Amino acid sequence: MPQSKLTILLAAPRGFCAGVDRAVQIVEKALAKYGAPVYVRHEIVHNKYVVDGLRAKGAVFIEELGEIPDDGRPVVFSAHGVPKSVPQEAQARQMFFIDATCPLVSKVHREAERHHKNGRRIVLIGHRGHPEVIGTMGQLPEGAVALVETVGDVSALEANDKESLAWCSQTTLSVDDTAGIVAALKKRFPSIEGPHKEDICYATTNRQAAVRAIAARSDALLVIGAPNSSNSNRLAEVAQAHGCAKAWLIQRAADIGWEGLADVKTLGLTAGASAPDVLVEEVIAALRARFDVTVEEVVTKEENVVFNVPKVLAA
Length: 315
Hints:
The protein has 315 residues and is α/β, with parallel strands linked by helices. The protein has helices at residues 18-34, 48-57, 85-92, 103-117, 131-137, 151-156, 175-188, 202-215, 230-241, 277-288, and strands at residues 5-12, 38-41, 59-62, 75-77, 97-99, 121-125, 145-148, 165-169, 220-224, 247-250, 266-271, 292-299. The protein starts with a strand and ends in a 16-residue tail after the last strand.
């Protein structure tokens, strides 16, 4: 029986960003240099395949430093960043730690500190409970940062109109949603200061733009990424907001809901910033097994960003 024809619109850029690539390299290089175990506080990036692969090589994932024995082994802080209390605790215990915080997250940290030093109260746009938000809020004393998640939160924000305010944002948010929240902040607090350069990172912006470029042409769209990955979830939302009602987040090919693809002729495909290329290849191979597939890569931007690993691990 002949296979149904399926055109895959493969979004580019997609997959690993420079910050994720650097963080994974840091764990791999630490394992190569110091041997196993290397402890990692929190998932180094939000992707089960990546975490399981590093675990198999000898990485031990923990949530808090208290879980680590005083054995002198290295501990790596995840790409999402950590509150200041974490390196302070590590120093107090004389631990050997390596910080894999994405440089673009560190930029937000320094920005928040600068505004705080200048006497401004920080309004952080982000998702409550996300490790990046916890890390950014943890750069400053309690009460110095107010978190807003929606436009509604802006109107409910307790702040004196004369108060000196500045806003920052999580790096992995929806560009469209964040623009709406920023507009609401500026309307309510005209003198609020923003970042010198956009906080939402280049990779998040580029991947969302690539999805916007294919969404309206797609009968359905698959985003390869983890359920706890902020940037991956945003990609599915962007697809739905820009003309593709059927957009699903999957971790691997085994998660594909085949019934939902029964009448699909054109399928959009992308991957979040913490999903490796091997998973994209796996999904395309699974689709080829069921359909007569044509792949059309839709490139909206070329990326050439590279972040160096810390000097202690440099070859």
